[in-house]
Design a protein that fits this description.
The protein is 32% helix and 17% strand. It is of the alpha/beta class. The chain folds into 2 domains: 284 residues, 3-Layer(aba) Sandwich (Alkaline Phosphatase, subunit A), CATH 3.40.720; 234 residues, BPG-independent phosphoglycerate mutase, domain B (2,3-Bisphosphoglycerate-independent phosphoglycerate mutase, substrate-binding domain), CATH 3.40.1450.10. Strands 3, 4, 5, 6, 7, 8, 9, 10 and 11 form a 9-stranded mixed β-sheet that branches. Helix 3 packs parallel to helix 13 and helix 14 packs parallel to helix 16. The longest helix has 24 residues. The radius of gyration is 24 Å and the shape is globular. The chain starts with 18 loop residues before the first strand and ends with a strand.
Length: 548
C-alpha cells in the first residue's frame, strides 16, 4: 500500500459514480480539413460530445511533455508519463542530448566499459536510423561514432532500422546518403567503420509488448548471424526492395551488407553492442535477446558473449538492460500511487499495442502495481495483422470489458487507451484511418451511456495527434503531392493539440472548466484528483476544473 495521501476536498464533491479517462490514442485537433481523417470520418457521437459538453484542447508535444523544443512531436510514452505524473519531466531525447553536450555520457561507467570491450574487437551500434526524435536521433549516433574513434576504437559496424513512421514514409535515402558521406570522412587506416545490416522498423527488431516476436527473430538473423539477402550498400538494398516489394521504409525487408560474399559485420564473441534508441517500448525485446542466457522465445542459434548497453534503461523494475548510457527520468508520486494511498480502486485496460501505456508509462515507468488489491490491469491481445487490414483493431472487445468494469461498481477510477487513431495512422492509409475512427465512434456510443447511467464522469482526451494529419505538409503548410498530384502520405505524429472533453451525468456537477494558459496533458492528473473529490498535490500542474 502506498503511504502517499491526498487531502479530501471541501471544494469538490465526492462523485456518485466512476471517473473514466478515455485516451483516444493519436486523435488530435487539426486546424485544416484536407488530410484530417478525424474530420473526414463519420463520427456523429464524438461530434455530439464535442458540441454538447465542456471542451477545450491541451498541448501534447514539445516542452509540454518534457521534450527539448516545441518542434518535437509528442509520443505515447511521454504522453502517458505526463497524464499519470501530473508534472512535466525531462524525457529521453532531452536527457540524451544533455548527456552528450556536457560530456557526462563519455565519462560514465557504461560508455567506458563499451569502449574497453571493443578496442580489440568490434563496436556495433543498432537502432532506429532517423531524426524523428521519438525513439532515437541520428545526431546521437553520429556523436557516439565520433567519440568511439577518439577513444581508440578501431572497428565500428552500424545496424540501421529504417523509419518511415516518425519521419517521411520514403525518406530513408535522405538519411543514408549523407551518413555514408559522414562515415567516409571518418574512415581511415586506423578506423574501419561501415553499415553492416538493416531493414524496416516494422519488419524486424523493434517489436513491442511481445506482439510479434518474429520481428526480433528476423532482426537477430541479419544483425547477429549476418544471414539475409546481401547487397553492396544500404542504398542498393533500399532501392532494390522498393522496386520489388513496393513497400514504404518501415516495412522494408531485412538486408545484410556483404563483401566477397561474406557479411561485413556479424556480431560475435567479445564484441560490444549499443542499442541507441532512448525510448523503451521497442527496445526491451531485442535487449532481452542480447542479455538473457536462458532466453527461449525463439532459437537464436548463436548467442555471442558481448558487452551490451542500452542508450537508457528501458525497464527500471526489471533492470533491463543492466548497463545503460543515460539515466532515465525518475518519476515519483504519480497519480496512481496517490490513489492507492487513499484506497481508491482503479482499473486500466487496453489491447496489447498500448497496454503498457496505461500501466507502465502511466505509473511513471513502473512495471508493477502500487497495490495489487486496489489496481486491476487488463490486456486484450492484439491481432498480429497489418493494422490497415483490421482498422477497428480490438476496440469492441476492449469496450465490452470496460463496460463490464463500469457496471460492476467496483472501481472509482478507470482508464482506457484505444490505439486505433495512432496504430492505423502510422500505416499512412487514409481510408483505413477513417474506418478506424468510425469504429471507435461506435464504441464511444456504447461506453459513454454506460458511464452516465452509472452516475459517472468521462474525460475524453488523447496522448498526441496522428490521425488528424495524414498528409505531409511543406513549410508553408500546403499538402505535399507526388508528380501525379496524389497527396504524399504522412505516417508520423503531429504537433496539433488534443481534445479534452468532460462528459458528466450530473446537470450541476459543481465545477466548470478552468482557464489554464498553455495547459498540457500533465494538467489532467490534478483534474482527476478534483473529480474524485480530492485536492491535488501542490506541485501538480493546475487542474482544468474549478468550482462552479
Amino acid at each position: 500500500m502506498s503511504a502517499l495521501k491526498l487531502e479530501k476536498s471541501t471544494r469538490f464533491k465526492v462523485p456518485t459514480g466512476p471517473v473514466v479517462t478515455l485516451v483516444l490514442d493519436g486523435v488530435g485537433i487539426s486546424p485544416r480539413e484536407e488530410g484530417d481523417a478525424v474530420k473526414s470520418a463519420r463520427t456523429p457521437f464524438l461530434d455530439s460530445l464535442m458540441k454538447d459538453y465542456p471542451m477545450t484542447t491541451v498541448r501534447a508535444h514539445g516542452t509540454a511533455v518534457g521534450l527539448p523544443s516545441d518542434d518535437d512531436m509528442g509520443n505515447s510514452e511521454v504522453g502517458h508519463n505526463a497524464l499519470g505524473a501530473g508534472r512535466v519531466f525531462a524525457q529521453g531525447a532531452k536527457l540524451v542530448a544533455a548527456s552528450i553536450e556536457t560530456g557526462a555520457m563519455w565519462t560514465g561507467t557504461a560508455w567506458t566499459e563499451i569502449v574497453a570491450a571493443s578496442k580489440a574487437s568490434t563496436l556495433h551500434f543498432l537502432g532506429l536510423f532517423s531524426d524523428g526524435n521519438v525513439h532515437s536521433h541520428i545526431e546521437h549516433l553520429k556523436a557516439m561514432v565520433v567519440r568511439a574513434k577518439q577513444d581508440g576504437v578501431k572497428r565500428v559496424r552500424l545496424h540501421i532500422l529504417l523509419d518511415g513512421r516518425d519521419v517521411g514514409e520514403t525518406s530513408a535515402l535522405e538519411y543514408v546518403e549523407p551518413f555514408e558521406e559522414f562515415l567516409a570522412g571518418l574512415r581511415g587506416a586506423d578506423f574501419d567503420v561501415k553499415i553492416a545490416s538493416g531493414g524496416g522498423r516494422m519488419n524486424l527488431t523493434m517489436d513491442r509488448y511481445e506482439a510479434d516476436w518474429s520481428m526480433v527473430d528476423r532482426g537477430w538473423a541479419v544483425h547477429v548471424r549476418g544471414e539475409g539477402r546481401q547487397f553492396a550498400t544500404a542504398k542498393e538494398a533500399i532501392e532494390t526492395f522498393r522496386a520489388e516489394a513496393k513497400v514504404i521504409d518501415q516495412d522494408l525487408p531485412g538486408f545484410v551488407i556483404g563483401e566477397n560474399g561474406s557479411p561485413v559485420g556479424k556480431i560475435v564473441d567479445n564484441d560490444a553492442v549499443v542499442f541507441f534508441n532512448f525510448r523503451g517500448d521497442r527496445a526491451i525485446e531485442i535487449s532481452r535477446a542480447f542479455t538473457e542466457a536462458d532466453f527461449s522465445v525463439f532459437d537464436r542459434k548463436v548467442f555471442p558473449k558481448v558487452t551490451y548497453a542500452g542508450m537508457m534503461q528501458y525497464d527500471g523494475d526489471l533492470k533491463l538492460p543492466a548497463r545503460f548510457l543515460v539515466q532515465p527520468p525518475t518519476i515519483d508520486r504519480t497519480l496512481s500511487e496517490y490513489l492507492a494511498g487513499n484506497a481508491v480502486k482503479s482499473y486500466a485496460i487496453s489491447e496489447t499495442q498500448k497496454y503498457g501505456h496505461v500501466t507502465y508509462f502511466w505509473n511513471g515507468n513502473k512495471s508493477g502495481k502500487f497495490d495489487d488489491a486496489l489496481e486491476t490491469f487488463v490486456e486484450v491481445t492484439s491481432d498480429v495483422v497489418p493494422f490497415e487490414q483490421r482498422p477497428w483493431m480490438k476496440c469492441a472487445e476492449v469496450t465490452d470489458l470496460l463496460i463490464e468494469a463500469v457496471n460492476s461498481g467496483k472501481y472509482a477510477n478507470l482508464r482506457v487507451n484505444y490505439p486505433n487513431g495512432d496504430m492505423v495512422g502510422h500505416t499512412g492509409n487514409f481510408e483505413a484511418v477513417v474506418t478506424s475512427m468510425q469504429a471507435l465512434d461506435l464504441q464511444l456510443a456504447r461506453v459513454i451511456p454506460a458511464i452516465l447511467k452509472a452516475g459517472g464522469t468521462a474525460i475524453i482526451t488523447a496522448d498526441h495527434g496522428n490521425a488528424d494529419e495524414m498528409y505531409e505538409l511543406d513549410k508553408k503548410g500546403a499538402v505535399k503531392r507526388d508528380k501525379d498530384g496524389t497527396p504524399k502520405a504522412k505516417t508520423s505524429h503531429t504537433l496539433n493539440p488534443v481534445p479534452f472533453i468532460l462528459v458528466t451525468s450530473d446537470a450541476n456537477p459543481g465545477w466548470k472548466l478552468a482557464e489554464v494558459p498553455g495547459a498540457g496533458l500533465a494538467n489532467i492528473a490534478a483534474t482527476l484528483c478534483n473529480l474524485l473529490g480530492y485536492e491535488a498535490p501542490s506541485d501538480y500542474e493546475p487542474s482544468l476544473v474549478v468550482p462552479a
